[in-house]
Design brief:
CATH topology of the largest domain: Rossmann fold
Shape: globular
CATH architecture of the largest domain: 3-Layer(aba) Sandwich
Radius of gyration: 17 Å
CATH superfamily of the largest domain: Vaccinia Virus protein VP39
Order of helices and strands: HEHEHEEHEHHHEE
Number of helices: 7
Mean pLDDT: 92
Strand order of the largest sheet: 3-2-1-4-5-7-6
Helix content: 25-40%
Length: 198
């Protein structure tokens, strides 16, 4: 949240917000004057977010709305900061999603993508052994189902590494792209600034 706070935004939107965990954290970390909105295309998740909001004193003015990342219900150049956590790899069209993000960001506005990535080469065999063999087994024992975890593994495996994602972001009209690798590269935060259209 400190990365967002440094930007001194007036309007922050969390995409693929789910039950709103990131949106709530943003609202708590930023000043009361900052407008925070969470968008998601899954209405049951938004219902959960609204239920959580009722129990949260500091988030009374937090906004949750339906929104598809391929066609955001936001005006051009209206947002100071966009965040998305662990939802970007599920985009049906990453390039289209990035272009839509750039459309709604103000020139100079910043995008933050928190997402799984490809780990360091030395750790990759161990990582995928855990994801493909151990995690589904644990999931089956605990829940009786492993389908969701098998999907998770597939989506992580097919997702680009940090350099390839940096190139995709750059090709979509963003500049000043910075990457923060965490947990041996398994997770990364990409941040980028929306360039003004010429």
């Amino acid at each position: 949240m400190s990365l967002v706070k440094v930007e001194e935004p007036k309007f922050v939107v969390d995409l693929a917000t789910g039950s709103g965990d990131v949106a709530f954290a943003l609202k708590k970390a930023l000043s009361k004057e900052v407008k925070v909105m969470g968008l998601d295309f899954c209405r049951p998740m938004l219902v959960n977010a609204e239920l959580k909001k009722k129990k949260c004193d500091y988030a009374k003015d937090l906004i949750f709305e339906f929104g598809d990342c391929m066609a955001l219900p936001l005006e051009d150049a209206s947002v100071d900061v966009l965040t998305i956590a662990f939802g970007f790899r599920n985009f049906s069209d990453r390039q289209k999603g990035l272009q839509e993000m750039k459309r709604v960001l103000k020139p100079g506005g910043r995008l933050f993508i928190l997402e799984f990535s490809q780990p360091a080469k030395w750790f990759k065999p161990l990582y995928y052994f855990y994801l493909k063999k151990i995690l589904p087994l644990i999931a089956t024992l605990v829940t009786g189902h492993s389908d969701a975890y098998e999907y998770l593994v597939g989506s992580i495996e097919q997702f680009p590494d940090k350099d390839a994602l940096t190139l995709e972001i750059n090709n979509s009209g963003f500049k000043d792209i910075q990457v923060l690798s965490m947990t041996v590269g398994m997770v990364c935060i990409h941040s980028a600034v929306a360039e003004p259209d010429l």
